[in-house]
Amino acid sequence: MKVSGKMFEPPPKGTDTAAGHIGRRLREIRKLAGLTQAQLAERLNIGQSAVTGMERRKDIHVSTLRDYLAAMGATLRIHARFDDADAMINNLREADFRFEQIDENQFLLPIFGEDRLPPHRDVVFSIKPEYSRKIVTGEKTIELRRRFPMSVPAGTTALIYETSPTRALSGIAEIGEVHRRSPEEIWRSFSDQACIARKDFDTYFDGVDRAFAIELRHGRSLPRPLELSELRERFSFEPPQSFLYATPKMREALLHERAKISN
């Protein structure tokens, strides 16, 4: 958590247990802020004994911690730290999640507080013409990816960009469940729905131990394909290698198509 520019983190294992006592840490912060328990209790509209109880606890609810710090004019921020930061950063960039990069090996990902992950948005897939046409006819109901955010909720709109030689936004579908399994498990469960040959499947997932199968529902063609030149002019669009999130302007332009799907 971040308070007045200082970062307070859980101490490493084996350090003094007093240093890991969150209640004692809060008491230290309160004293540094020049507040008595009675003054803080008044700000929180609780009894002084309740403040005493908080400062005796070794753990505490996040909501209580937030309110305690807010009473001193501080903002609580909680971050997750990943060991494999390099791979995670690539995933976050591709999925357009908001994060703060410290250096090539460290980044901050907001979990709680004012900095939030962006709301879910329509997803644009780059798909070869032979596959995209099977999606809009309903023959292909599974899209495969080496990486894909599990946080994409069911009901999210999938916009289908056909790669060369078409190079146009040509179809639309609705994302169902996202499955994350080993490539072999994905093949056994979804090969027929993915409409892919085993040789091509193995080539695509070579070197990865996890694969993603994305359910697609209600596939259909757009009334008019939007060619790449028009997409660039209207939406500053550049085709993704795998997928990206549609801009709000693009979502607004295709609102009527999403309404038709929901009906």
Automatic annotation (TrEMBL):
<feature type="domain" description="HTH cro/C1-type">
    <location>
        <begin position="26"/>
        <end position="79"/>
    </location>
</feature>
<dbReference type="Pfam" id="PF01381">
    <property type="entry name" value="HTH_3"/>
</dbReference>
<dbReference type="InterPro" id="IPR010982">
    <property type="entry name" value="Lambda_DNA-bd_dom_sf"/>
</dbReference>
<dbReference type="InterPro" id="IPR001387">
    <property type="entry name" value="Cro/C1-type_HTH"/>
</dbReference>
<dbReference type="InterPro" id="IPR015947">
    <property type="entry name" value="PUA-like_sf"/>
</dbReference>
<protein>
    <submittedName>
        <fullName>XRE family transcriptional regulator</fullName>
    </submittedName>
</protein>
